[in-house]
Amino acid sequence: MLSPSDEEYEYDVANKNRPNIIPLAALSKSHWTCSIEAGLEFCRIIYDIFGRKKLISFLASDTIAQQLTGWADDHQDLEYIQRVFGSLGLPRKAGRFDDVSILHGLYAATAQLLTPSQCQVNARLTLLDNADSFQNNGRIICVTVARSENQVSDIIDKFVNDFEMKNREALCSDECIPITNCELVLVLIHPVGSTPKVLPKDSWMATSNLTVTVIVTESGRNLANRMVALAVDYFNLVITSVTGIPMKEEQNANSSASYDVELLHSDEAHSEMSVELADGCRAPSQEISGVESVTLKWCTPKSSSNTDIQLCVGAYPISPVDANSRPSLCLTNFLLSGRSVMLEQPRRSGVKVLSHMLTSHGGQIYIHQLSTSRSILDDPPSISEGVGGRVTDYRIQNFGELIKKHALKPSTQTSADRAPIEGAESSLERHTRHWPLTISDTMIYNLQSHIDPLPELLLKDNLTAEDVEHCRSAIFRLITLESQNLLVLTLTYYNFDLDREEHSRMMWSELELLVRAHSSTSPHHALILEILLNCRPAGLEDSAANMKKRRGTSDSRTDHSQPSTPSSELLSETGRAKSLPRSDSPLPKKSKYAGITLDFKGNKSVLSLWTERMNHVNNNRHAEFSGRAHSTSNKVKLYQKLEEGIHYMDDVDETTPGVKNCPDH
């Protein structure tokens, strides 16, 4: 451990750039010094975030194991640990016959984990009746130098044997607590720039309650960063990078620049952030390699802002990744002076979202997680609001009527056939077999005034012959209105990219879907479906299947048994529907513009549609000039016969109107 780390540090900075002065040579710390600094950095982060809730004990191994700190509360302090290491001094060079081994320290570490702390003793007393539920978990982090793979394997094998033996002995002891789960982490260091002699190994289970991991890293600054990465992994921490901090330059007080400071804290501080936003804010850490950081943007604090009324979800202590850097010191002093800073999530567009706040309480800096969702103190959202606050076209009025019809109340009537709750469930099932959520998802409910009372009658349990006749009349009325082009679609549904035939197909498809969804309720419902199939326009045989595939609005709960009563008996029962279509049914009148076909495809204005219609009507009022009728692009070549050497007047076609009496042509 006394060998140098080969990482040079310039300490004679004052004379480095002076002329005619040779600065002192750079220094290189030993592995021992780098290990102590890495251990202190590990403790600093844990104590800043968790205080004394996480206990750490230090041991040193030479010819014997030396316990430096224990589980006492006064030992969990950085100043105390520094004094202990200062009194320990440098490790001495081992002689040829000295029994110097890291195993002495590993054996003592196992015994230290078996020794209960004061908080464990108190917790064990409270669980005296249920002592089996008490768990003693720990982790041993060993920083050492290894020369070969065989040496590492020998250390692990001997440690596993000693661990199992001491754990069995602890089962019969009242002064020790058996270890439930333990993890041995061997951190093998080597000089900077050299080739390691041992390869790293992933975690593996040495025993049922012991996990072993081998980590190989360079000494110096890399070792400290590796210890910070272990703390992030072991204690569920996360790094937040505060970007855009305005700070005056040290050389020029009149100029300022933006700096970034990375803070460590519990990962629960980002629990309110959605997965999409958290992934968009993640970036590799600038200080710790192999660790990601969440980027939050500095929001300049306002003097009028009151931080005490912010809606906070939680507060978590923080610890700077690099506590000695100038940006970290300036930010720490700024927050400890009583100021607060709001942090916002970086977004490319849209309104900024203030998600976190930095402030201090009692000399400790905390990151507060602010609620970015709707507060319980705010008014409830409108029923017309969809996902993200977008206004939708929900059928709010129809939904209110559906709720009123199916409001539960105490029943005073008893039936031997079924319970009242079963009747309520059956009614709700019938009403929701085909119930579009939005206005833009339906056509027939936008034309309900033309098809009433068909939708209401289909919801009944049983239909009479009179109800069937009413449904039949509604279907024929719809056919008549469509033939006369009197069906007006609302602008919320009308799609200008589709022509009239496609709109008609979609309307009849949805109507068939509605009737087919209720056709299994009773035989009379099946009769209405048969009437619709016989009366619908030709070419729509596959309309219901296409409608179901395209929009998926039908319900699959129409798989009840089909009615056993044949439809011919029902036709005779009604007395009118036997001879469909009836002779006294309203015949479609010939429209004034029956021959007009308008193309609604494309984005055309109302003016262009009206102009095309008027041009078509005007063109039908007179006979078209034969020359223009047989022309190409409204251009006709005059005196075609003269080019062939034949006199024009002798060869003019007497039957051609407009040419014989017009010599100029």
From TrEMBL:
<keyword id="KW-0539">Nucleus</keyword>
<keyword id="KW-0963">Cytoplasm</keyword>
<protein>
    <submittedName>
        <fullName>ASUN</fullName>
    </submittedName>
</protein>
<keyword id="KW-0131">Cell cycle</keyword>
<keyword id="KW-0132">Cell division</keyword>
<dbReference type="Pfam" id="PF10221">
    <property type="entry name" value="Mat89Bb"/>
</dbReference>
<dbReference type="GO" id="GO:0005737">
    <property type="term" value="C:cytoplasm"/>
</dbReference>
<dbReference type="GO" id="GO:0051642">
    <property type="term" value="P:centrosome localization"/>
</dbReference>
<dbReference type="GO" id="GO:0051301">
    <property type="term" value="P:cell division"/>
</dbReference>
<dbReference type="GO" id="GO:0007346">
    <property type="term" value="P:regulation of mitotic cell cycle"/>
</dbReference>
<feature type="compositionally biased region" description="Polar residues">
    <location>
        <begin position="561"/>
        <end position="571"/>
    </location>
</feature>
<comment type="similarity">
    <text>Belongs to the Integrator subunit 13 family.</text>
</comment>
<dbReference type="InterPro" id="IPR019355">
    <property type="entry name" value="Cell_cycle_regulator_Mat89Bb"/>
</dbReference>
<keyword id="KW-0498">Mitosis</keyword>
<dbReference type="GO" id="GO:0032039">
    <property type="term" value="C:integrator complex"/>
</dbReference>
<feature type="region of interest" description="Disordered">
    <location>
        <begin position="545"/>
        <end position="588"/>
    </location>
</feature>
